[in-house]
Amino acid sequence: MGDGRPDTPPASAAGRLTVRDVLDLDLVAPWVPEVVAGSAHLHRAVRWLHVAEALDVGVMLSGGEMVLTTGLLLAGDERAQREYVESMQRADVAAVVLGLGRAFRTTPEPMRRAAERCGVPLIVLHRPAPFARLTEEVHARLVHGRFAALDLSDRVRSSLTALNLSGASLQQVLDEIAAHSGCPAVVVNLAQRVLASAGDKGSLNDLLRDWERVSGQVAELAGSGAVTVGPDGWIVAPLEARGRQWGRLVLFGHRGPEEFGRVLGARASEALAMHRLLGDQDRGWEDQAAESLLHDLATGTARPEQLVTRVRAAGLPVNRRIFVPLVVRPLGAAPEGRDDLPEPIEHALAEHPGVAGLVARIGTAGTAVLLSIPAGQDADAAVRKVAVRVHEELAGRGRTVVVGAGFGCRELDEVRRSFVEAVHVADAAVAGPPDAPVARLRDVRLRGLVRLLRDEPELQAFIGRELGPLLGNPALLEVLRTYLATGRNKSAAAQVHHVSRPALYRRLQSIESLLGIDLDDWEQLTSLYVALLAHEAQRAAGPGSGR
Fold first, then answer.
1. pTM of the shown model
2. Are 58 and 91 contacting, i.e. CB atoms less than 8 angstroms apart?
3. 435, burial (CB in 10 Å: exposed 0-12, middle 13-18, buried 19+)
4. What DSSP state is assigned to residue 439?
5. If we measure between CA atoms, which residue out of 401, 291, 397 comes closest to residue 338?
């Protein structure tokens, strides 16, 4: 596991040296190096050093070498000097280092002009240089750096694989990636919507607050299938699964060497791809991201100033908007046990371009929606239109639902209370579906109030006092429930329970005797009705209630 410290070894251990890095070595300074051509290309990577005097050395090279020569075979032949430099260009060398003193006292002009034209860095050493010492130093650094890069690769891969195999969440994997890289890490889909983020909260806030500009820079930096490292330590790695790219991992401000950044990007993208393949195939990261964000909004677990940036980065408009939470509860089981609510709800939202929304499952039975409506629109009318379309979409799939709405919020820190209201309204509406396409708190009346208070200790004690002796006798409890639901119509209640009226009378008398009440006393009857509603509310509260 990461310990919070970034894997940022010194440049000398980076496994990658540039031409400029070699020239900056203390060993080189006494030889008085001078870049006489190709100074714009000193960022080229040096893969190896090669000492050679042969004119046709270019055919023996594979690219990235820094070639060291005294030019003994080039003296007095301007054509050979030009052709030598041109062969270096074809071999894609990193640079040519010419030691002055044996063949040339000053820089040969044909070589300098050819190097400038070909874009090959040409460095001359004004004092005698033992090439063997330079070769030994650079090769030692390169080999050590490559071992360090391999070690980093193994450590990152091992820790992330262990997390994946232990069933860690996406957030845990991304936290580990951020710990290894020492900088914020963000996962986005191809539409640049933020699916998850990790790292220093202050830095993340700054990034997400200006996400529109930042995401544009990420898109420009992203390469065509390989890990890309930008000049400010921004690392962009493609995220792929089954041969198809679906998103990107972005590390912002990695302070280590570029080679280590590439290793981190590659190992991290592999781990994220594995996590996606090992995860719930029915719930993509987009669903999980929306669920996490809605959970934080509904529970108030994150500060409002953090949520604003997260909501905006998730693609939901936040400026001059009214936010209305909806909770959609199914009536009856889904066909073939499928939970297919989010997709048709998203289709319904897509038909209202002025209204944006986040959609996510809540528990095992229901879906939450956070609507973002322009402040100039009639929010109630917009909610109604969306709800009507949701009913139509689901009816076409053989589904019947109730839609509960909270109150409209102009600030995100009000959303938590509104979500609580929407949950309770939807729960109450399941027991008594309204005629309207969307239920509000005013529509569920006493039933809604009881649902709101169902977890209060006082209400639980009230249920025990009013119904106590019947709680252990489900048959009589159901008779009482039916008797009240039918408006105290004894004939109707007897038909529901398939018993004669005299048999029903005897059961009602048993209820009066057990509870010590008179069923003709309206005040006592009202207390019983409220207690029954509260008992129903408590039975409805479970793993799938969204609470």
1. 0.48
2. yes
3. exposed
4. B
5. 397
